[in-house]
């Protein structure tokens, strides 16, 4: 990457950064759509970022924190204002409190990212607009330009690494902090079909089966906030069945759904599940962030082979649509 310019215009209240890359516009765009890739370059090397939410839609929200050398953390958020894939998106960019809410004591700004094709690859133009000269000077004094330069210096290695998007072709599991896990899976399907597959009981009974020998016997769907859902599985070999129930908290078809989940018959708190879908080259990227009440429950559930069961179902789903298209 070559940063060709960083210009500060105090009259226009803007800082504009232009950088050129040797990869395609789409590849660069996709790096910003995937939280796993984005967190590898959003923070400077000494303050790496962790993205706990990446809701890429107008009105959607991205939440992250950067962790310093001594373990100290600084939170941030984006609120998406416009999105024009794969050409541009604009966000309100601000600082966040530890609970993720906007930090009213710190400044916010608008950030427009524009992606364009070039004869040698692609160009990224980032225009940050401030609400006053005082805010601009405050961010400059905090090292914004230097930090941005260091962070963007990492993008080349990320976009040159095809192992990250390739890993998502099967269920990829990562731990986030002490109580969260992030599941990522790429589907060679359009976003509407992936959403429909999670909300059509007939389709769900064909793919949401987990390991061989199980059937989804109950599929009561929740579609709107406040709705409850219930899924139950039965074993064809006589093993005890199980199921999950919960409440839909958010639903923004076909991009995001948030729900509670608990094992039917179990005591105590369950989990909070946030699913996001975003279109990338060749299909749709699913990201599921699961928040557990504590690390002990998270580890117990993951040790049951949850990710393997999810992959068996996801692979079945992709095969189902591949056969239908043949």
Structure description:
The protein is 26% helix and 42% strand. By secondary structure, it is of the alpha+beta class. The protein has two domains: 2-165, 2-Layer Sandwich (Alpha-D-Glucose-1,6-Bisphosphate, Chain A, domain 4), CATH 3.30.530.20; 168-325, START domain (Alpha-D-Glucose-1,6-Bisphosphate, Chain A, domain 4, 2-Layer Sandwich), CATH 3.30.530.20. The chain is globular. This is ATPase.
Strand fraction: 35-45%
Work out the radius of gyration.
Answer: 21 Å
Q: Roughly how many Å apart are the termini?
A: 41 Å
Using the coordinates above, name the CATH class of the largest domain.
Alpha Beta
For the record, the CATH architecture of the largest domain stands as: 2-Layer Sandwich
Overview in brief:
This protein is α+β, with helices and mostly antiparallel strands and 326 residues long. The chain has helices at 25-33, 35-38, 133-141, 144-152, 155-160, 163-167, 191-197, 201-207, 295-302, 306-325, and strands spanning 2-9, 14-21, 49-54, 61-67, 73-84, 88-96, 108-118, 121-129, 172-176, 180-187, 214-220, 228-235, 242-252, 256-263, 271-280, 283-291.
Tag the structure with descriptive keywords.
Alpha-D-Glucose-1,6-Bisphosphate, Chain A, domain 4, START-like_dom_sf, 2 domains, 26% helix, alpha+beta, eight-stranded antiparallel sheet, 326 residues, 10 helices, 16 strands
